[in-house]
Amino acid sequence: MRNDQDPEPPRRRLSFPARTEAPVGPALDFTRRALAAWHLWEPPPDRPHLADDTLLVVGELLSNACDHGGGPRYLELERRPGAVRVTVGDRNRVLPRRRPTGPGAPHGFGTVVLDRLTTRWGAVAGQGGKSVWAELATG
Question: Which residue in 59, 53, 85 sits closest to 72, CA to CA?
């Protein structure tokens, strides 16, 4: 049982089995609970869309892991000073790359979303896949 003096853990992780069907819904619920526990669900006035932006980034990274990464392995959320870091691990070592985009293009806008909503993002290849991370400013 927690008391008011116990801080919320600054890092939360949700693991996915090898063949997870539709992981985005449970991941968004997980993200909502983490943001609420960190008192970021009702964001500060200077970041009125923080919760919505974070959910959009989580959805984008997980969708990319499903479409291009062989499926997600985990979602990790970390509360850092002045930021929330979202990391999604997948099963493919190939790093994301920018695709040409234009009117009517059906794909290739994920990096545009990350560029617009986050302060920085990147990817790291490792054993068994890669991790794609993005940071959103909290204030």
Answer: 59
Which residue shows structure tokens 């008011």? 4
DSSP secondary structure string for all residues of 88-122: EEES--PPP------TT-SS--HHHHHHHH-SEEE
* pLDDT, tens digit, 9 for 90 and up, residues 48-97: 899 999 999 999 999 999 988 999 999 999 999 999 999 999 999 999 87
Q: What is the pTM of this model?
A: 0.87
Rounded Cα distance, 107 and 131, in Å: 21
- Give the C-alpha separation, 17 to 133, whole Å: 20
Across the beta sheet with 83-90, the strand order is: 11-15, 72-80, 83-90, 129-137, 120-126
Q: How far apart are the first and last CA of the chain?
A: 30
In which residue are the tokens 């806008």 written?
Answer: 109
